[in-house]
Amino acid sequence: MRILLVEDDALLGDAIQTGLQQDMQATIDWARDTATARISLAPGHEYQAVLLDIGLPDASGLQVLSHLRDRYDATPVLIVTARDQVSERIAGLDAGADDYVVKPFQLDELSARLRAVIRRSQQAVTPQLQIRDIVIEPARRQVYRAGRLVSLSEHEYRTLLALLESRGRTLAREHLEDAVYGNHGTIESNTVAVYIHQLRRKLGNDLIQTVHGSGYRIDVLGNGD
């Protein structure tokens, strides 16, 4: 088992790392800021859970959590923080955290909560998304066409998932931009069109229909433009 600890307090981080390695027989990697955490949690990481402090030196730990959930990474996240206001707990849970522990805490409680969120994640069944011969497995972020794995970029994947989850409805370009980029600055006006073109090339020209003046939609019946 491999767990990522994101904590800037040296004494507390060392105690958690040592204690969990002994108690859970796990490998505990330790990141001390959000920048390092995001690198450690790049797509394809092998962590079974994340212990995440909110008050980090370079940014809020919630940004790390949002970074994971924005790309549909369901790795369990247990927030560990000194902020005990109800509003703070709600913000963390709403952002996608699986549980919340307030400092100070007992190590055995932390271990128990960590085992619980990992157990729940392993028992959860993430349904496949499918249309015709195209299958998406969100838990593994993999896409297949006619049984063959298709390599998609992060932005192509997000575009496809947004369209497939909204099948039967037309998504405006602006909504797709939000799904792909969130609120991360201005992008080129033709960026979404480029991703649509790449998806058609890789998954079939008739998969995505252009609704002129409105946006794009998954063409369920296969009558693309």
Automatic annotation (TrEMBL):
**What InterPro entries would the database entry show?**
CheY-like_superfamily, OmpR/PhoB-type_DNA-bd, Sig_transdc_resp-reg_receiver, WalR-like, WH-like_DNA-bd_sf
Residues annotated as domain Response regulatory: 2-118
Keyword field contains Transcription? yes
Entry keyword annotation includes Plastid: no
Q: Which UniProt keywords apply?
A: Cytoplasm, DNA-binding, Phosphoprotein, Transcription, Transcription regulation, Two-component regulatory system
Q: Which residues bind DNA?
A: 126-220
Instruction: List, for all copies, the residue spans of the domain called OmpR/PhoB-type.
Output: 126-220
Listed GO biological process terms: regulation of DNA-templated transcription
Residue ranges spanning the membrane: these are none
- State any GO CC term: cytosol
UniProt cross-references to Pfam families, sorted A to Z: Response_reg (PF00072), Trans_reg_C (PF00486)
Cited PANTHER family: REGULATOR OF RPOS (PTHR48111), TRANSCRIPTIONAL REGULATORY PROTEIN QSEB (PTHR48111:SF35)
Name of protein:
DNA-binding response regulator
Upper classification of the organism? Bacteria, Pseudomonadati, Pseudomonadota, Betaproteobacteria, Burkholderiales
